[in-house]
Amino acid sequence: METLIRGDIATGRGFALLDPHGDLLRHVRDNVPESRLRDLVYFDAAIPDQPYGFNPLANIAPEKRPLACSGLIQVLKHLWSDSWGPRLEYILRNCLLSLLDYPGATLSDILVLLSDRSYRKKVVEHVRNKQVKEFWTSEYDHYPERFRIEAIAPIQNKVGAFLSHPALQKILTKPERPLSLRRIMDEGKILLVNLAKGSLGEDTSNLLGS
Predict the structure, then answer these.
(1) Domain count of the chain?
(2) pLDDT truncated to tens, each residue of the chain (210 aa)?
(3) Predicted TM-score (pTM) of this structure
C-alpha cells in the first residue's frame, strides 16, 4: 500500500487514507514533499478543535439516498448488535430516509424528529417516499404515548450515547469545514484521516471509518 501511496503523491493524484492505528498515516504525513503540502488535508478525529467533519446525510443524490440509508443502518447494526431488533431498525430506517430528504439535517436530528411534532411536520413535508411519509402521518403519530416512548427509547439512548462523544459530535454534526471525498479526489488532494482506536475508542473509530 505504501508503494501505491508514494506513486499517487509523486504523480499528483488525489487519494484518501483512513488509518485505524495511526502509524502508517503519520509516516505518510511526515514524508509528503514540500511541493504537495498545499494538497494535504490532515484529519485527526481525536483532536477536539480540528475543523474537519463529515455529515453522512448531506449532499446525496435522491436516487442514492436509499443506498446511503442502508449503509448507515448496517454500520449502526454492527455497533449496536447487542440491542438491535426489527422495531428499532424499522423506526430508524424511516428516520434516516426522512432526514436524507431534509436539507441541513444531521444525525443529531434523529432525536428531534422522534420527539418534536412541529419539527417532524416540517421534515415530512420534504419526504419524497410515499411509504415513509405515511409511516409518520398514518402510523407514528397515532402510536399510543406509552408504546411510542418504549419504541423510541433504544434509539434515543444509542444515538444520544455516541453523540455525547465531543469529537464525534463535532465531526458529524457541527464541522467548520465539511469534507467532500468527491471534491478531494477531483482536486487531487491528499486526505489523511487518523482514526486511532487508542484515542477514540473502537466504536467511535469504527463508525467514522465506515
Answers:
(1) 2
(2) 777 888 888 888 888 888 777 778 888 888 899 899 999 988 887 777 777 778 889 889 999 999 999 999 998 898 888 889 999 999 999 999 999 999 999 999 999 999 999 999 999 999 999 999 999 999 999 999 999 999 999 999 989 887 887 777 777 777 667 777 778 878 889 888 887 655 556 666 566 655
(3) 0.79
What grid cell was written down for 61? 443524490
| 203 and 114 belong to one structural domain | no
Give yes or no: residues 66 and 165 share one domain: yes
Dihedral of the CA atoms 160, 162, 168, 172 (nearest 10)?
Answer: -60
Residue from 147, 13, 169 nearest 91 by CA: 147
Same domain, 42 and 83: no
Residues 29 and 128 grouped into a single domain = no
